[in-house]
Amino acid sequence: MSFPLTHPAAGLTQTAAAASACPATSAAAKAELARLIELLAAAGVTAVLSPGILTIPGLAAGPGDTAGIRVRTTSNPPYALYAIADGNLTPHPSADSVFAFLHPLIEAAARPCDGCGAKAGAPCNPNGLSDPSTD
User: Fold this and answer.
1) Least packed by Cβ within 10 Å: which of 38, 77, 115, 133?
2) d(CA 31, CA 34)
3) How far apart are CA 39 and CA 83, in angstroms?
């Protein structure tokens, strides 16, 4: 499965600058994942860390997303944090950047869905009906 990059096309200079802003080592990238867990926990979002990947199962990228959002690093430079959401791969240089990217989704998850009637925190049903298991 291929993931399209969602960042805008950049010139060579901008790409090099973005890569230099990323963590310098694999260990630093893993530390950024740990910091992201702290940021998410402070926002009331549960995340599960396994080697090299952070899974946020309760946070959907949109209606019908059942996989949740994942954030991973690579074992080769650049050691960016890559957010995988709704089939898109978005590189970020830091935990703060990923958290800013996820913040609208966190806020949306805290509100009830007007479209399907799902309660706050309950998954949205793509067929437009609330999930009876959450009623």
Assistant:
1) 133
2) 5
3) 15
Phi-psi region of 61 (alpha: psi -120 to 50; beta: other; left: phi over 0): alpha
Q: Is 27 helix (H, G, I), strand (E, B) or coil?
A: helix
What's the N-to-C CA distance of the chain in angstroms?
A: 35
CA-CA-CA-CA dihedral for 49, 5, 26, 40, to nearest 10? -30
Closest CA to 57 of 42, 71, 67, 44: 67
Contact predicate 72/53, CB 8 Å: yes
- The residue written with tokens 């600058």 in the block is 17
Q: Could you read off the pLDDT of 25-76 as tens digits, one per residue?
A: 888 888 898 999 999 999 888 888 888 788 888 776 666 666 678 899 887 8
Whether the Cβ atoms of residue 49 and residue 39 lie closer than 8 Å to each other? no
Q: Are 69 and 102 in contact (CB under 8 A)?
A: yes
Look up the pTM and report it: 0.66
For the purposes of burial, counting CB atoms within 10 Å of the CB of 92, is it exposed (0-12), middle (13-18) or buried (19 or more)? buried
Task: Count how many Cα atoms sit within 13 Å of the Cα of residue 11 in the half-sphere of its side chain.
Answer: 2
